Structures are given as C-alpha cells and as structure tokens.
Amino acid sequence: MIKILDARFVITAVEPKGYPQGHTAEVAFVGRSNVGKSSMINTLTNRKKLVRVSNTPGRTRTLNFFDVDLERGTARYQVRLCDLPGYGFARASKTDKAQWEKMITTYLEKRHRLEVVVSIIDAEVGPTPDDLATLDYLQAHKRKVMVVATKIDRLTKAKTRPRLQELAKLMDLPLEAVLPFSSTERRGVDEVWGALLDTFGRASRVRAEAAQDQDQD
User: Fold this and answer.
1) What's the pTM?
2) Are 153 and 182 in contact (CB under 8 A)?
C-alpha cells in the first residue's frame, strides 16, 4: 500500500542550468497532449491541483518538477517527477516547436538523474505514430520506459485485458509491460508506484532515509 506523505512543486526549467539540484531519483512523464498526463500526476500524488489541468491541449511548454515523499510499508522514499510538454496538438510556430523539441531532447538525453520515463498511452485510442516514435527514441537512447495505458475506465471489464493485449502487441511489448490506469476511478495508483519503486527504489529509499536522519540531528 502506497501512502503519499507530501507532494510539492519545485521549479520550472527550460535548460540544464535551471534543473533542480540534488540527487533525488527522477521520473519523467511523456505523452501526447490531452492524454491525461496532468490528471495522472495529480492522482499519483493524491493532489487535486498539483499540476494544472487545462481544457486547452498543449498548454504545458516548460519542464515542471515536483518532489514526492511517500511510504510503502515501513520504507520511506523520495521521488522527483518531471512533467514534460505534451506532443501532437500544440498550436505554435515552427521556431517555438523547434525550441521545445531541443528542450525536451536535451533533458531526456542528458539528465543523469532521470531513472525512468513513463510513456502514457490512451487505452481507447491506442498508440499514435507520435507515441510509437517516442518509444523508439527512448529505447534508442537506452532509457528505461514504463508504458501506462490511461483512461482505462472507458473500457468494460470484459474488454480491458484483450485491449491491453492488443496495445502490447502494437507496441511490441510483453503484456506485463503495459500498466492500466484511471484517474477517474483511481485505478492503478499502487501498481504504477510499485513498478517505479521496484525499478529504482533502493537508491530513492536511501536518499529519503538519509534526509530524514539529517532532519532528526
């Protein structure tokens, strides 16, 4: 069982010199605009307004960092989340889009604290060409990727597993590599956190416990 202790905004950045300092393990969230990325982060952190949810696709145009303190059982962890701009729908000039692309690729390729990239897919729509291109890009740059199929509540229970199998096949992934999620029904929260902590949890746990020890000194 995952318990969120605290979640807070850290900083907004557009280039490496603006990235937050420290050694906290980071998780980046990528996905097309309007896929439910902001809602997913709010649900994972048990906060309604940590990340602004906009009705206008493409509003996020910077790298936004958030720190989360959480517990799993008796272990305490600290994780940093990075919300990346959505792709596919933003209305902007070619110059602006080129700047955003440089900002995003610089972070994804150079950020050494980045442990996992969560690639969000719409369970109902399926992976778009942009989604597949992003997966190929991340795999080419040796990034650990976790695929989450959001908005799973739009499918009936009978259709959920067959749809997940279909999505996994479309992305050439094993079924267990695609995690179902619903912000509306808060489904998949513990499963996503569990998978993340299992991936890099030891380092994150050590850092959180060290910080706690310092607080007690």
Assistant:
1) 0.89
2) yes
According to the 3-state scheme, what is the secondary structure of 124-187?
A: CCCCCHHHHHHHHHHHHCCCCEEEEEECHHHCCHHHHHHHHHHHHHHCCCCHHHEEECECCCCE
- DSSP string for residues in 29-51: EEEBTTSSHHHHHHHHTT-SSSS
Maximum alpha-carbon separation in the chain? 54
Contact residues for 9 (Cβ-Cβ < 8 A; gap 6+): 50, 64, 65, 66
DSSP single-letter state for residue 117: E
| Position 61 confidence tier, pLDDT thresholds 50, 70, 90 | confident
Tokens matching residue 127: 């992976």
N- to C-terminal Cα separation, the chain: 29
38: Cα within 13 Å, side-chain hemisphere: 20
List, for residues 142-157, the tens digit of each pLDDT value: 999 999 999 999 999 9
- Give the neighbor-by-neighbor strand order of the sheet with 114-122: 2-13, 63-72, 75-83, 26-31, 114-122, 145-150, 178-180
